[in-house]
Amino acid sequence: MNAFQMFFLYLMMFIILVHNTGVVQSGPSDVLLRTVHADNQSTTLLQSYSYNRKLLVQGSSRSCTNRDLSISQSRDSTSGIPQYIVQIVNTCLSGCSPSNIHLHCGWFASARIVNPRTLKRLSYDDCLVNAGKSLRSNQIIRFTYSNSFMYPLSFKSATFC
Fold first, then answer.
1. Which of 24, 47, 82, 87 is the most buried if burial means most Cβ atoms within 10 Å?
2. What is the CATH number of the domain that holds 94?
3. Which domain does 147 fall in, by range?
4. pTM of the complete model
5. What's the CA gap between 33 and 77, in Å, rounded?
6. Among 142, 119, 129, 151, which Cα is nearest to 5's?
7. In what order do the strands lie in the sheet with 69-76?
8. In 47-104, which residue ranges form alpha helices assigned H by DSSP?
9. Are 90 and 137 in contact (CB under 8 A)?
10. Span 15-37, pLDDT tens digits
11. Could you tell me if residue 25 is inside a domain?
């Protein structure tokens, strides 16, 4: 992984953590990558948007929801068939580990083999993440796929605590 990719990866993780850890922010902010959140809201490259989020109180009895699963992807700057880096993060702080995570993924396919324990298309528009195993708090599932276009990947279902 080159220096730019490492910087971009850390930047993406920082944006995800700040967005999902309950830091209150209001006013415009610039998003530097395409992000599809679990609730199918999408932000695009350099699109300005505003949001407010309640500050999480530690020790609260709030349970995890699909909003705590962040799905991000970005294009990798390579020649040849375009490559896309996907990251799926569980940002829930209550200790819940969602399992059996499924994504909307259309006819997902890749010219580069994706480990089926990471992401496996079961049928049209149904991809299983992490072989159905639980995704611990702040755990990141990361994979790269190659295709002529970016597949829209979004949350479909999961089993929550």
1. 87
2. 2.60.40
3. 66-161
4. 0.62
5. 13
6. 142
7. 42-43, 35-37, 69-76, 83-90, 140-146
8. none
9. yes
10. 544 444 443 333 333 333 444 54
11. no
